TrEMBL record, chain A:
Residues 426-440 have a biased composition (Basic residues). Residues 349-361 have a biased composition (Acidic residues). PANTHER family: EXOSOME COMPLEX COMPONENT RRP45, EXOSOME COMPLEX EXONUCLEASE RIBOSOMAL RNA PROCESSING PROTEIN. It is found in: Cytoplasm; Nucleus. This is Exosome complex component RRP45. Keywords: Cytoplasm, Exosome, Nucleus, RNA-binding, rRNA processing. The keyword Nucleus applies. It holds the Pfam family RNase_PH. Belongs to the RNase PH family. Residues 32-163, 189-252 form the Exoribonuclease phosphorolytic domain. Its main location: cytoplasm.
Automatic annotation (TrEMBL), chain B:
Residues 52-171, 176-225 form the Exoribonuclease phosphorolytic domain. Belongs to the RNase PH family. InterPro entries: ExoRNase_PH_dom1, ExoRNase_PH_dom2, ExoRNase_PH_dom2_sf, PNPase/RNase_PH_dom_sf, Ribosomal_Su5_D2-typ_SF, RNase_PH. It comes from Gekko japonicus (Schlegel's Japanese gecko). This is LOW QUALITY PROTEIN: exosome complex component RRP46. Keywords: Exosome, Nucleus, rRNA processing. Transmembrane segments: none annotated. It is found in: Nucleus. The keyword Lipid biosynthesis does not apply. The gene is EXOSC5. The lineage of its organism: Eukaryota, Metazoa, Chordata, Craniata, Vertebrata. Its main location: nucleus. It comes from the Eukaryota. The keyword Ribonucleoprotein does not apply. Residues 26-35 have a biased composition (Basic and acidic residues).
């Protein structure tokens, strides 16, 4: 599905507003949208909301053999996915240009800045190292994906705990979380991307562009910086010429923003840690505001299953074989239900069995049904009234009842199935209601 | 399969009932249910009853999709986005009803066979519940994102899908809900099992049941169990 294009009016309106130093969401030029960080129940799982943009981050790890040229270094792998959930324009399974660009930028920001100590991920040099995989899913596209993704990635990495390992001689022991507390990754610094949008050939500058602003901007400058004011990555795209001063101004703004965001991240991490330590409730469910009309919680709810037993009995007693309504394919267990014309009556031969079923109401012969059997074993209940009808119930995953009105074949059927019958309930006999709908 | 469907049937309304009572509580309507709730709570605390885990849901949390919802059952959490009805690719167009596309995204890595099979199950369930004939030649896209998997993932996905469809305002002939139950070696039944319980269970059964006629829309079984169970 294609993205709805922005109309000329909207474009002009946006640009005019920007010229007047106004933004649609009421922010100032250098304001960031609200950032909200919530953590999942697993380690290394977080959702970062930047205004309406939402990114889900999940870190996982695996023991692999290292790359031959870097025998003592762990592997870091980033994967940002633009889910179709985020915007109808994103197609699943296609590497769009935007996606490649974002992934590359993320790698440069986080891997090439050496913020993660990859050497500490080495278990046995040249043989076993940890591969850390960071999966980022864009859930909602509200503009400025890269900032949200970089925050989500670094928060997830900080939150992540890998299982502890010990090496004794050649032997590598991996401890489960119950045996030994998982260990956090060693992180040197936290690079965070800040995006700047330029309009009118660089005359106007906005921090953290929203989705609509991104559509009318002329150029984009992304600066990744850590809180020590060290630039990790800088990228200018969109084909505008920037003056040296502009870049300096941007890097100054970045420094301030990064300090704010880092503080927020640390607060969020400390908060989560505290809650976990105290054994309180954590996870996404806690981060949903209670008062919102769209949100709703029920505590663990007891379900009354007291009467289930009785109900079950009742249902068994009433059980009617599923009729044609059950459109699923019939599964006949091996060695069962060869009735009617004999061998030719093969798998799922519905027409025939239906015909035979429909004959029942005419004859008015009450039939019984059986139940109970060991699994994998079919139960066949045969009950013969007026020496006319044989009911074979083959109840496996789907019940199939094939009715054979011919008395002549009764004996054959009975003898062949006798050994299969594990139990037979003759007590409850009900007329099959399901057959009364149609007369032959 | 007549038994388990009926067996699971009554539970759904009771969950629904509890839900409604909660809503009523918030709206400040009559509170005759309280005594019963307390009684049930007491019995639940004594460990007699199997229970559903805590359910939390939120609707309309994403701005881009037409309908979105997040559904959490205990630790399991699924986020859903629904687009539709929208234009459809010519190759997928069906002239008399809507085309359903379901995407289930795992949290780690790319979708595999397991996700594909789940997608099909959810798709079939939706086709049964949504009045697709009202939107011919259009597509309804449902994107599910697993946020945390703590067991009963399929039933959580089904519930999330239903809430998402509601939020998108699509015409449904009934609501549906998914229930997972696990049977252990002694034949004890666990409702809404956790991942650990699922692993230990002898059989895991999931049903999608509609809200009007309590019919089974979809069922999935894993492991061995007898018909009565």
């Amino acid at each position: 599905m294609k993205e709805t294009p922005l109309s000329n009016c909207e474009k002009r309106f946006l640009l005019r507003a920007i010229e007047e130093r106004k933004r649609l969401d009421g922010r100032q030029c250098y304001d960031y949208r609200n950032i909200r960080i919530s953590f999942g129940t697993d380690y290394g799982c977080c959702i970062v909301e930047l205004g309406k943009t939402r990114v889900l981050g999940q870190v996982s790890c695996e023991l692999v053999s290292p790359k031959p040229n870097r025998a003592t270094e762990g592997i870091l792998f980033f994967n940002l996915e633009l889910s179709p959930m985020a915007s109808p324009a994103f197609e699943p399974g296609r590497q769009s240009e935007l996606l490649v660009k974002l992934n590359r930028l993320l790698e440069r920001c986080l891997r090439n800045s050496k913020c993660i100590d990859t050497e500490s991920l080495c278990v046995v040099a040249g043989e076993k190292v940890w591969q850390i995989r960071v999966d980022l899913h864009l859930l909602n596209h509200g503009g400025n994906i890269i900032d949200a993704a970089s925050i989500a990635a670094i928060v997830a990495l900080c939150h992540f705990r890998r299982p502890d390992v010990s090496v004794q001689g050649e032997e590598v022991t991996l401890y489960t979380p119950e045996e030994r507390d998982p260990v956090p990754l060693s992180i040197h610094h936290m690079p965070i991307c800040v995006s700047f949008a330029f309009f009118q050939q660089g005359t106007y500058l906005l921090v953290d562009p929203s989705e609509q602003e991104e559509r009318v901007m002329d150029g984009l400058l992304v600066i990744a910086m850590n809180k020590h004011r060290e630039i990790c990555t800088i990228q200018s795209s969109g084909g505008i010429m920037l003056l040296k001063d502009q870049v300096l101004v941007c890097s100054k703004i970045t420094g301030v923003k990064v300090a704010e965001i880092t503080e927020l991240i640390q607060k969020a991490l400390a908060n989560d840690q505290k809650v976990r330590k105290e054994g309180g409730k954590f996870g996404f469910a806690e981060s949903i505001p209670n008062q919102r009309i769209t949100a709703f919680k029920i505590e663990q709810s007891p379900i009354d299953t007291d009467d289930v037993q009785e109900q079950a009995e009742e249902i068994i007693a009433k059980a009617t074989p599923p009729s044609e309504a059950l459109a699923n394919p019939v599964l006949w267990a091996p060695g069962t239900a060869q009735i009617g014309e004999g061998v030719e009556n093969s798998w799922g031969d519905f027409e025939e069995s239906e015909k035979e079923e429909e004959e029942i109401p005419e004859e008015k012969s009450p039939t019984t049904e059986d139940q109970t059997m060991e699994m994998g074993d079919t139960s066949v209940g045969t009950k013969n009234k007026k020496d006319e009808t044989i009911v074979l119930s083959d109840s496996e995953e789907e019940d199939v009842i094939i009715l054979e009105p011919e008395g002549a074949q009764k004996n054959r059927a009975e003898t062949s199935y006798k050994q299969d019958i594990t139990s037979k309930k003759t007590g409850s006999k009900k007329k099959r209601k399901s057959y009364s709908h149609k007369k032959h | 399969m007549s038994l388990p469907e009926e067996e699971a049937g009554p539970r759904v309304p009771s969950a629904e009932r509890l839900r409604r009572t909660r809503i009523r509580k918030r709206q400040g309507e009559p509170r005759g249910w309280r005594a019963r709730m307390e009684r049930e709570q007491k019995r639940f605390e004594s460990g007699e009853l199997p229970a559903l885990r805590r359910i939390v849901c939120e609707q309309g949390l994403l701005s881009r999709p037409d309908g979105s919802a997040s559904w959490m059952q205990g630790d399991t959490s699924v986020l859903v986005g629904v687009y539709g009805p929208t234009e459809v690719k010519v190759s997928k167009e069906i002239y008399d009803k809507a085309t359903f596309e379901v995407m289930l995204k795992p949290k780690i890595g790319l979708p595999g066979v397991y996700e594909r099979s789940r997608e099909q199950m959810i798709k079939k369930t939706c086709e049964a519940a949504v009045l697709g004939t009202l939107h011919p030649r259009s597509s309804i896209t449902i994107v599910l994102q697993v946020v945390t998997d703590g067991g009963s993932l399929l039933s959580t996905s089904l519930n999330a899908t239903c809430v998402g469809l509601m939020d998108a305002g699509l015409p449904l002939n009934s609501l549906f809900s998914g229930v997972t139950c696990a049977l252990d070696a002694d034949g004890n039944l666990t409702l809404d099992p956790t991942a650990k319980q699922e692993k230990e269970a002898r059989a895991v059964l999931t049903f999608a049941i509609d809200s009007t006629e309590k019919k089974v829309l979809m069922s999935s079984t894993k492991g061995t169990c007898s018909v009565e169970e």
